[in-house]
C-alpha cells in the first residue's frame, strides 16, 4: 500500500504543480498579450467546456471496456504534445484552437486519477484527503516560486514551465498500476444512477459552488494586479489558500469521523458566501489574505467531501463515470459558466461586483443542499 500511495502522491504532486502554474498565471499571460476580458473568458470557458464534455466519453469507454489505465497514459502524452503548440503563436484564434484540442485529451486526467485513488485506497478511502494534500503542497510551492520567476522575467515563461511539468507527468503516468475494475454486465444499469434525485441535486449544488469560484479562478490575479499588488504578493495569496486547504486535507480523516459528507458540504457553502463578500469589500492586503484562508473550506473540505460523497452514491460498475460526471459538472460546466459570466462582465461591472454575484451563487447552492438533506 505504501508504494501505491507514493505513486498516487507523485501523480497529484505533479498534476497540481502544473495547475499552480496554469490557474493563477495563464490568464495573466493572456492579459499581457493584450487579450480583452471577454477573450480571456472565452479561452477559459472553452478549456472548461472540454473538461465538462469529454471526461464522460473517456470514462464511459474506460468503464465499459476496462481500459482506464491505457487511456490515462495516452491522454497525458497527447495533451503534453498539443500544449507545446502554444510556443508557436500568440494569435487569439490559434490559441483558441490549441486550447480546444488540448482540452480534449487533458479533460479526463484528474477524474481518472480520482478513480484510481478510490479503487487503490480501497478500505482506506478516509485517507484520501491526506493523499490529495500532496497536490496542494505542490500547488503552494509552485505558485510562490512562479510569482517570483514572473517578477524576474515575464509571464511568457509560464508556457515553457507548464510544458516541462507536463512532460514529467506523462512519464510518471507509466507507473500507475492496473486496478481490478468489475466485469459485471451492469454498466448501463449503473450509469442510470446518475439520474438519481440525490445525485442530480448534489451535482446542481456542486455546479453552483464551482461557478461561484469563476471570479476567483479567472480574474483574482488580474484584480490583484489592478489593485497594485506585485506578482510575488499574488503568488503568496494563492499559496496561502492552498496551505489552508492542506491543513483541512491532512486532518480530513478526523473531520469525516465527526461530520457527515452532507454537513461538511453545507458548511462549505456558508463559508463560501462569507469569502466572496469579503473579497467584494477587500482592498487591503490583510483582508485579502484572511479571505484566502477560507479556501480551506470552500475548496479543501468541499472537494474531499464531494469526491467521497460521489463515490458513495455510485455503484462499482460506474466508479470512473461517477467521478467524471462530478468533475465535468463542477470543474467543467461550473467553472465554464463562471468564466463566461466573469469574462463578459469583468470590464462592465468589475471584479468586486462579480465577487458579490459569486456570493449569491454559493448561497443558492447551500440552501438547495440543505433542503435536499431534510428531504432524505
Structure description:
This protein has about 375 residues and is mainly α. It has a single domain, classed as MFS general substrate transporter like domains (Growth Hormone, Chain: A, Up-down Bundle), CATH 1.20.1250.20. It has 17 helices and no strands. The chain has helices spanning about 1-30, 35-65, 70-85, 90-105, 110-120, 130-150, 155-170, 185-190, 195-210, 215-225, 230-250, 250-260, 260-280, 285-295, 295-315, 320-350, 350-375.
Write the layout of secondary structure elements.
Blueprint: H1 2-32, H2 37-65, H3 68-83, H4 92-106, H5 109-121, H6 128-152, H7 157-172, H8 187-191, H9 197-212, H10 214-226, H11 231-250, H12 252-258, H13 261-281, H14 285-293, H15 295-313, H16 319-349, H17 351-375
Helix pairs in contact: 1-5, 1-6, 1-7, 1-10, 2-4, 2-16, 3-4, 3-7, 5-16, 6-11, 9-15, 9-16, 9-17, 10-16, 10-17, 11-14, 11-15, 13-14, 13-15, 13-17, 15-16, 16-17
Number of strands: 0
- CATH fold-level topology: Growth Hormone, Chain: A
Assembly form of the protein:
single chain
Helical content band:
over 70%
Largest sheet: none
Question: What is the average per-residue confidence, as pLDDT, rounded to a whole number?
Answer: 86
SSE class? mainly alpha
What is the CA-atom radius of gyration, in angstroms?
19 Å
CATH level-two architecture = Up-down Bundle
Low-confidence stretches: none
The coarse overall form would be: globular
CATH class designation: Mainly Alpha
How much of the sequence lies in strands comes to under 5%
Distance between the termini: 36 Å
Tell me the CATH superfamily.
MFS general substrate transporter like domains
Q: Number of domains in the coordinates?
A: 1
SSE run: HHHHHHHHHHHHHHHHH
Helical segment count = 17
Amino acid at each position: 500500500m505504501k508504494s501505491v500511495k507514493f505513486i498516487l502522491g507523485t501523480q497529484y504532486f505533479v498534476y497540481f504543480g502544473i495547475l499552480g502554474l496554469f490557474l493563477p498565471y495563464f490568464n495573466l499571460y493572456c492579459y499581457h498579450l493584450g487579450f480583452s476580458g471577454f477573450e480571456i473568458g472565452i479561452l477559459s470557458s472553452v478549456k472548461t467546456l472540454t473538461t465538462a464534455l469529454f471526461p464522460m466519453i473517456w470514462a464511459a469507454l474506460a468503464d465499459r471496456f476496462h481500459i482506464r489505465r491505457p487511456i490515462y497514459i495516452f491522454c497525458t502524452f497527447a495533451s503534453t504534445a498539443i500544449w507545446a503548440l502554444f510556443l508557436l503563436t500568440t494569435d487569439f484564434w490559434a490559441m483558441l484552437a490549441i486550447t480546444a484540442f488540448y482540452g480534449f485529451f487533458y479533460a479526463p486526467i484528474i477524474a481518472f486519477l480520482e478513480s484510481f485513488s478510490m479503487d487503490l485506497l480501497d478500505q482506506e478511502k478516509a485517507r484520501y484527503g491526506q493523499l490529495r494534500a500532496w497536490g496542494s503542497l505542490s500547488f503552494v510551492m509552485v505558485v510562490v516560486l512562479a510569482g517570483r520567476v514572473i517578477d524576474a522575467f515575464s509571464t511568457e515563461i509560464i508556457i515553457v514551465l507548464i510544458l516541462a511539468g507536463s512532460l514529467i507527468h506523462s512519464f510518471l503516468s507509466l507507473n500507475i498500476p492496473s486496478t481490478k475494475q468489475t466485469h459485471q454486465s451492469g454498466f448501463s444499469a449503473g450509469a442510470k444512477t446518475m439520474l438519481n434525485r440525490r445525485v442530480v441535486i448534489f451535482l446542481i449544488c456542486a455546479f453552483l459552488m464551482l461557478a461561484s469560484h469563476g471570479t476567483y479562478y479567472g480574474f483574482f490575479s488580474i484584480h490583484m494586479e489592478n489593485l497594485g499588488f506585485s506578482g510575488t504578493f499574488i503568488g503568496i495569496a494563492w499559496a496561502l489558500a492552498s496551505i489552508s486547504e492542506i491543513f483541512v486535507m491532512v486532518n480530513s480523516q478526523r473531520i469525516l469521523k465527526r461530520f457527515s459528507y452532507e454537513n461538511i458540504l453545507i458548511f462549505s457553502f456558508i463559508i463560501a458566501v462569507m469569502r466572496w463578500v469579503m473579497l467584494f469589500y477587500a482592498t487591503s492586503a490583510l483582508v485579502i489574505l484572511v479571505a484566502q484562508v477560507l479556501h480551506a473550506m470552500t475548496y479543501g473540505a468541499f472537494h474531499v467531501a464531494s469526491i467521497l460523497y460521489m463515490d458513495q452514491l455510485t455503484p462499482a460498475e460506474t466508479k470512473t463515470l461517477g467521478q467524471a460526471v462530478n468533475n465535468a459538472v463542477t470543474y467543467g460546466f461550473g467553472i465554464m459558466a463562471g468564466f463566461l459570466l466573469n469574462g463578459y462582465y469583468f470590464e462592465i461591472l468589475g471584479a468586486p461586483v462579480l465577487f458579490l454575484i459569486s456570493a449569491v451563487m454559493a448561497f443558492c447552492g447551500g440552501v438547495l443542499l440543505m433542503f435536499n438533506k431534510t428531504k432524505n
